[in-house]
Please model this.
Amino acid sequence: GNGCTAHVIPLLQVGTPTDAGGAGALTLPIPADPNLMGLELTAQYAVVDPNGAFGGYLAFSNGAKVIVADV
Model:
């Protein structure tokens, strides 16, 4: 709670820039491989925030889960 809950296990960490409002984005290309169908990916942002709930220097986003599917 309080903006400092880790919802994912950080097996891969990728740095992305944010704008002055704290918004950031990451594009992740997924190959058209049928073996990836049903693959679940999770993500969460951690940002440097001098007023962050985690030790007064970090804040965490909500977690997100994406499931690879055929469209």
User: Anything to note?
Assistant: The CA atoms of residues 40 and 67 lie 5 Å apart. The beta strands are 40-43, 46-48, 58-60, 64-67. The first strand starts at residue 40 and ends at 43. The radius of gyration is 15 Å.
